[in-house]
Amino acid sequence: MASYRLFLLSFFLCIFSLSALASPVININKDTVQLKNYAIEYFIDTSQIMKFEQLRNQTFHPTNNTTTLGNQAPVTWYRIKLDNQEKQQQKLYLHLPKAYHLRSVAIVEESSRANNLPLLVNQTSINLNTASSHPLMYQGTVVYPFTLPALTNTTLYIKSHAYSHQWFAAEIYDEEHSRKALVGGHLDIALLVGMMVALVFYNSLLYLATSKKENILYSLYLVSGQLWIALSYGLISKAFNTYGDWVFMLNLTVFTMPIFLVLFMMAIFETSQTYPKEHKGLQAILALLVVGFIYGLFDISSALKYASNLALIMMLVTFSVSISLFRKGNPLVKYFLIGHTFFVIFNAYAVLYYKGLVEPNYVNSHGVGIGIVLEALTLAFIISHRIKILEKIRSKQAELTQQAATDPLTQLYNRRYFLTESVILVEKAQVNGEPVSVMMLDIDHFKAVNDQYGHKAGDLVLIEVASAFQKLSREQDLIARFGGEEFVILLPSSNSQAAKECAERIRQGIAERSIKLDESTKIKITISLGVAEMSIASQESIESTLNRADKALYQAKTQGRNQVCIAEFKKDL
C-alpha cells in the first residue's frame, strides 16, 4: 500500500513537472483579439550574434509579455506561441510599444500544422537609427501584421537588442483594437511633462523677482526631468518620430537631473557657509555624478549600467543630508524631505524594475517620472516659501529694530529703549497737558529663589512675572526690564492715584499667582512697587521721576515688602 501511494505521488509529480516545462501556448478561438497580459518565453543571447537556426534549439524561460531583465541582457529573444483553433484564418497585429528605446528589432514568424515541421513564413528586422521611415514603425511602436492560418500553430520570435536595460512589452490585437491602441496613448506622460513646463514658467517669473541662483538650478533640474520623462516613456518618439543613437544620448539627463538637484540643495540650504559636514557629503556625490556624466559622453550604454547604482547612492546621501539638516533646525528642509521622500520611494521602486528584480507594473515602470514631478512640485513650494520669508523679513525691518531693543529673556523692552521712548511719550503728554506717572517694581526675595531653586528657576520666575505685568497693565503703558529683578512701567494719562490703583492691581495679581517650576514644585512670590507722578508743570525730567519712584520702592521694601508706596513731588524737593 505504501509503495502504491509512493507510485501515485511520483506519477503526479512527473505530470506536474512536464506541464511546468511545457511552453505556454495562447489559444485564439474567437474573432475579437485583445491580448495585453499573457505568458511568453525568453532566451538571453550572451554572444549577441547567435543565428536563428541555432536559437530555435535553445532553452527558453517563462515570463510575461511585459517584462524587464535588467542591464545584463542586451540581446534577448522572446517567443510567443499562438494556436488558431478557428476554421478560418485571422489577421492580427503584434505591437511592440517599447521599441523606441532599442538599437534594433528582429521578428521571425513560423507556422506549422499538427505533426508537421515548422515552416518559416516571414522575417524582418528594423534598425532604429533608420526607423523613422520604416513601414512597421509607428510613433515609437513596432506594428507587425501577420496572419494565423486556420487550425494552425504560429510562433513569433522577437529579437530585442537594447542599449542598456532590457525592457520589453508585446501586445497582440485584431485590426479594430490595433487601431484603438495606436490612437492617443502617452497622455499621462504628456500631463507630467506639461506640469513641469508650467513649473519652468512659474520659476522663470520667480527668478525675475528674486535673481536667485537656486531658481536657475531648479529650472535646469526641471528641463532635465522633462527630457528624461519624454525620452524614457516614448513621448519624444511619438511627437517627433525619431529614434536611434543620438536620441538615446539624451539619457545623459539621468546624470544632469541629480547634478542640478544636488547643486540646488547646496544653494537653497547654503551648506557651504552653514553646514560644512553636509556640504562635503553633497560634494562627494556631485563628483560621482559628474564623472558618470563625462563617462556617458563617450559610452552612454556602459554608463547607464551603473546609473541605477549611482542613483541609489545619490538618494541615500541626499536623504541623509536632509535628515541631518532637519535635526539641526533648518526651516526649509522639512518641506524638502516631504518631496524627496516621494522621490526616493518611487525611484527606489523604479530601480528594482530597471534591474529586473520586481514584476513590472504601472507604478514601478513610471516610478522615476512620478517621483520627479512630486519632488519638483515640492521644490517649487520651497522656492516660493523662501521668497515669502524674505519678503516678510523686509516688511518687518521696523519689528526687527524693535527686537534689538528688547530684553531677550522676558521679551520686554530694555533700559535703553525705555529711556528713549519715554522722552517721546512725556513730550506728547506735555503738549496735551496730560499727567504721566512712573512705576518701579522689584521681586521680593528674588535672590532666595535663585539660591534655593537655581538660576533656571529664577529665569522662569522673571518670565512669568513679565508676562503678568503685560496682562495686568494697560495696552498704552510702556513696560521695561531695567536689570536683574527690577522693572519699570510708564503710565501715560495717569496721575498718582490712577497709578497707585494700577500698582495695587499688579501687586495683588502677582501675589495670587502660583509659578510652576516643574511637575512637583510651585512657588508664590510677591513684588514691591514705588509710584511717582511726573511734575509736568515743573518740566521734571524722566530721570528725576524714576529716581523718586526708586526711592518709593526702597521705602516699600523697608516697610515689609509686598506693598505700594507713592513718592510725592513736593517732599522730594
UniProtKB/TrEMBL annotation:
<feature type="transmembrane region" description="Helical">
    <location>
        <begin position="281"/>
        <end position="300"/>
    </location>
</feature>
<dbReference type="Pfam" id="PF07696">
    <property type="entry name" value="7TMR-DISMED2"/>
</dbReference>
<dbReference type="InterPro" id="IPR011623">
    <property type="entry name" value="7TMR_DISM_rcpt_extracell_dom1"/>
</dbReference>
<feature type="signal peptide">
    <location>
        <begin position="1"/>
        <end position="22"/>
    </location>
</feature>
<keyword id="KW-1133">Transmembrane helix</keyword>
<feature type="transmembrane region" description="Helical">
    <location>
        <begin position="333"/>
        <end position="354"/>
    </location>
</feature>
<feature type="transmembrane region" description="Helical">
    <location>
        <begin position="366"/>
        <end position="384"/>
    </location>
</feature>
<feature type="transmembrane region" description="Helical">
    <location>
        <begin position="189"/>
        <end position="209"/>
    </location>
</feature>
<feature type="transmembrane region" description="Helical">
    <location>
        <begin position="306"/>
        <end position="326"/>
    </location>
</feature>
<feature type="domain" description="GGDEF">
    <location>
        <begin position="434"/>
        <end position="569"/>
    </location>
</feature>
<dbReference type="InterPro" id="IPR043128">
    <property type="entry name" value="Rev_trsase/Diguanyl_cyclase"/>
</dbReference>
<dbReference type="InterPro" id="IPR000160">
    <property type="entry name" value="GGDEF_dom"/>
</dbReference>
<dbReference type="GO" id="GO:1902201">
    <property type="term" value="P:negative regulation of bacterial-type flagellum-dependent cell motility"/>
</dbReference>
<dbReference type="GO" id="GO:0005886">
    <property type="term" value="C:plasma membrane"/>
</dbReference>
<keyword id="KW-0812">Transmembrane</keyword>
<dbReference type="InterPro" id="IPR029787">
    <property type="entry name" value="Nucleotide_cyclase"/>
</dbReference>
<protein>
    <recommendedName>
        <fullName>diguanylate cyclase</fullName>
        <ecNumber>2.7.7.65</ecNumber>
    </recommendedName>
</protein>
<keyword id="KW-0732">Signal</keyword>
<keyword id="KW-0472">Membrane</keyword>
<dbReference type="InterPro" id="IPR050469">
    <property type="entry name" value="Diguanylate_Cyclase"/>
</dbReference>
<dbReference type="Pfam" id="PF00990">
    <property type="entry name" value="GGDEF"/>
</dbReference>
<dbReference type="InterPro" id="IPR011622">
    <property type="entry name" value="7TMR_DISM_rcpt_extracell_dom2"/>
</dbReference>
<feature type="transmembrane region" description="Helical">
    <location>
        <begin position="216"/>
        <end position="236"/>
    </location>
</feature>
<dbReference type="Pfam" id="PF07695">
    <property type="entry name" value="7TMR-DISM_7TM"/>
</dbReference>
<dbReference type="GO" id="GO:0043709">
    <property type="term" value="P:cell adhesion involved in single-species biofilm formation"/>
</dbReference>
<dbReference type="GO" id="GO:0052621">
    <property type="term" value="F:diguanylate cyclase activity"/>
</dbReference>
<feature type="transmembrane region" description="Helical">
    <location>
        <begin position="248"/>
        <end position="269"/>
    </location>
</feature>
